[in-house]
Amino acid sequence: MTEVMETTVRRHAAPEGAVTEPLDDVLEPDAFTPRLLALLSNALVWRESHELRRRFDLGTNDWRVISATATRPGVSATEVTEFLGVNKAVVSKSVNVLVERGLLLLSDGPRGSRPMYLSAEGAEMHHLMRPISVRGQEIILGDMSPEEVATFNETLRGMLERLRAA
């Protein structure tokens, strides 16, 4: 237990029937890979989102939609949802914000789909936002060789495939 937790436990009386000692089969926080990956991801998203909001009044989800559209002009919101692995409502909210700001243009597609394209302003915004994401990558991969980065990315892709298959 951390010192903060121990202090909290000592200062407050536990309710009757509460378990007051650590369990024997807890996960070791500093050796549990999913926790470490989540902490890393959360730190990257927080850093990126804070900077994007400060500089452009847009957030990480908005950047992700811009980036996905820059990669695949004419992509649908459903395809962006699948590509990003996020809830449809998250993409929908960002699409609305980006359309409102004139950064994203919607077209009429087959079966009622709405292919999305960046406007000239959206393409410029992509160029301005991109270095913030690149900087996050530089921070976490800073002391790795190109070969180590390739191996690391291959390992992460393998993890994602196993998780999706599970």
Main traits of this protein?
166 residues; mainly alpha; Arc Repressor Mutant, subunit A; two-stranded antiparallel sheet; 7 helices
Describe the structure.
This protein has a domain at 56-134: Orthogonal Bundle (Arc Repressor Mutant, subunit A), CATH 1.10.10. The chain is 65% helix and 4% strand. It is built from seven helices and two strands. A two-stranded antiparallel ribbon has the order 1-2. It starts with a helix and ends with a helix. The mean pLDDT is 91.
- As a percent range, the share of helical residues equals 55-70%
Rg (C-alpha, Å): 21 Å
CATH-assigned fold name of the domain at 56-134: Arc Repressor Mutant, subunit A
Mean pLDDT: 91
Poorly predicted regions are: none
Briefly, what is this?
This protein is mostly helical and 166 residues long.
What does the secondary structure layout of this molecule look like, with pairings?
Layout: H1 3-11, H2 33-56, H3 60-71, H4 77-84, H5 88-100, E1 104-106, E2 116-118, H6 120-141, H7 146-165
Antiparallel strand pairs: 1-2
